[in-house]
Amino acid sequence: MDKAIVTSNIYRDFAQGVEKFQKDRGNPDVLVSARGLAATFREICIRRATRRHSGQSLKEEERRLLRLEAETWELLQRVYEHRRKPQGEGRTTQEMLKANAYTPTLALYQSSLSYSPRLAELCEIQKWLESIYRPIEPPLLTNEYWKFTTMDLKQKRRQGQTTRTGYVRTLDPDAVNRIGDSGVLNADDAEEEKSLLNSLFQHIRAGKLEDAIEICQTAARPWRAALLRGSYQLRWDSLNDLSERDTGVSEEIWSGNRRWILWRQMCAEASMSSSLSTTDKALHASIAPSVYTLPALLPMCHTWEDHLWARLGALIGDRVEMKLGETAGGFWNPGSFRDRLALRARLESDVKPFVGQESDWESVIAHQLDELSDMAVETSDPVEDFLRRSQLGVICRKMKSLLIEVEDAFKDSEESLPVESLRFFAHLWLFLNMINASNELSSTRIIEKYIEVLQQSGERDIVALYTSFLGHAAIRKYADFLASMPLGSPNSELDRALRSAVAYHLDVRLVAEEASRLSRDRAAKLLPPDIGKLPDLSQVESKQSLTDAEKHIVRSIAWLRFHASTHALIIPRSNEAIRWLLCHGHISAAIQLSADLPKADTNESGDHVHAIEYLLYRKLLALWDNLSAFEKIKEPQTALNWKRRLEDQIQRLFDDFVEVVTMDWGIESDESDVEDGPAADGGM
Fold it and tell me: Nearest Cα to 595, choosing from 672, 681, 662, 526?
């Protein structure tokens, strides 16, 4: 897959992954593939857990949790990719046996998987559990069979010792397990035997059956290699379809176990034997897993993944045996006379199995995995707990109830969800949303909460990306984010934040209008109640610092300036804002608002009446601003040009005053007057 870009900021790493696949939204085949969205998230976690950055100092526990999250993303990718595969293709076992009574058991098993998607899915999950198992170094074994015990027995025979000395009396594989003969091996041989059994079990746990067989061959234990090979079902390609058989082939090649069900039953008997060691019993139970042999297997399971692997293996083993048991009476599974009669009756019927009709088995799966739900919470780390719950949610197909549980965690302020867990669940929600798994989604509360975290973390540049997934609420949510930006933010930052909406397919006009409205609402909450009385403007300072409420009013107009689609709203909204500010004595805010708007914006209004009103306000506020400038220089100064500056300022004030008081306030003029207005504005 493409290498994921990893930075020192995990928020941006995941945002880049989402942005990369946003164009594939609604295309599950791409998103669930081995190079898709979930795989990209997995790659990010792995690289962050293994790489070291100058600005990144992760503890070993944090790295472990990142690896656990990577494993969870791999599970999601495998399971949802499997669910996209076609099901119920090819011939059924009934059709295969009807056409060819000698159909090998492997072909029958593969046909069962096609018509049992739940069984095939659990097999895929089992492969995942085996792939994430940490590899174990093989033990240092000799290539001789019980070397030291053999030497001891030979030595005692040469010395003529015939009495029991505690050692085994024979060297057959069952010597130490034979009931009534409690002999033991030489200590070195016993330790090697124990190490061998542990190694074989660990290789079975990792899904490396061939490596385990090779270890048996190297350690001179061919009977153990034969035992392990028994787990392979019969494969005989030339018997799969007799109609296509190549009669020119002189050599018949087959492999696997022709009596697989019998072999499985004998392994189950061995796993329950009291004469075998704990490890040996677990080894037999692991290669022929069953719900009934779980007590023999679980003592060797030390981690949560081990327990999950054991229980899934038991479920799969019993289900496969049941499926193949339905062929009892056939050539490779003769069964009883009654089985043969029942099989003949089934083959003569034309009933085709219904794909996915496994509700009875679902209750068995739920019963077996319920205990793991309790095990998942036996940890002091809530992040690990939620990741385990997520894995179980995927396996048990209970993602919606899991996400609802996560949303409920937001309601408890005392037990807030860790940021790491919230980040994971937010992107899990996005993944399910993008692959159209709407039946597994709850509300948008998780993604909204994550957006709040991004805002608090200062990651404003990527808020628009996540907001775009909120559907109808996206406009309101992103506008609320814009309105909540710090009041000291420069206009360039506000402009960039608004334009980010365009990149993620949000309607920038609607976003700007909503942000403007929300800014006014914020101002209204901060302002004192209206007493219904006009202020005494002669007592108002025009150069006061703006309050937060006034800044929100000024910003409400600023949101309309940054994009051409909202320029037509600037003039009427500015008139409303300035009118309100003047009526409530907020002169400084009115002057600031007017000064922030360039002259070019006055040509954007579709109504010339609004343009006239706006130009009048600008002239009035400019006069007010000049009065403030006059206050600063009216006192006598020693500067040589003070008198001339004072005279110029007085003349400018007089001209502006005459122009303001002689204008027709509130009287509609023709269009020529409007066009002459900006020119007479002195270039403002």
Answer: 681
What spatial distance separates the first Cα and last Cα of the chain, rounded to whole Å?
58
Burial classification of residue 9, based on how many CB atoms lie within 10 Å of its CB (0-12 exposed, 13-18 middle, 19 or more buried):
middle
- pLDDT tens across 41-53, in order? 999 999 988 876 5
With vertex at residue 409, the alpha carbon angle to CA 408 and CA 414, rounded to the nearest 5 degrees, is 130
What digits encode the pLDDT tens for the residues 176-231?
777 666 677 777 778 888 888 999 999 999 999 999 999 999 888 899 999 999 99
Nearest residue to 125 (alpha-carbon basis) of 78, 71, 81, 83: 78
> In angstroms, how far is CA 392 from the centroid of its own chain?
14
User: Mapping DSSP to helix (H, G, I), strand (E, B) and coil, where does residue 14 land?
Assistant: helix
Determine the Cα–Cα distance for residues 149 and 169; give it in Å rounded to an integer. Answer: 10
Helix axes 570-583, 548-558, angle to 10 degrees: 160
How far apart are alpha carbons 310 and 303 in whole angstroms?
11
**Alpha-carbon distance 271 to 277, whole Å?**
9
- What one-letter code names the amino acid at 86? P
**Element at 31 (helix H, strand E):** helix 28-31
Higher pLDDT, 239 or 342: 239
- 468-495 pLDDT per residue, tens: 888 778 888 888 888 888 888 888 888 8
User: Distance from CA of residue 127 to its chain's centroid?
Assistant: 20
What span, in angstroms and rounded, lies between the C-alpha atoms of 72 and 428? 10
Structure tokens at 322: 């049941």
State the pTM of this model: 0.79
* Alpha helices (H) in 457-506, listed in sequence order: 463-467, 474-483, 491-503
CB under 8 A, 24+ apart: contacts of 257-264: 257/229, 257/230, 257/231, 257/232, 257/233, 258/234, 258/332, 259/332, 260/105, 260/230, 260/233, 260/234, 260/324, 261/321, 261/324, 261/325, 261/333, 263/230, 263/231, 263/288, 264/288, 264/290, 264/317, 264/321
DSSP 3-state of 645: helix
Amino acid at 90: G
Q: How many CB atoms lie within 10 A of CB 542?
A: 17
Reading the block at residue 270, the tokens are 């061995």
Q: What is the mean pLDDT of the chain?
A: 79
User: 3-state DSSP call for residue 167?
Assistant: strand
Cα 35 from chain centre:
15
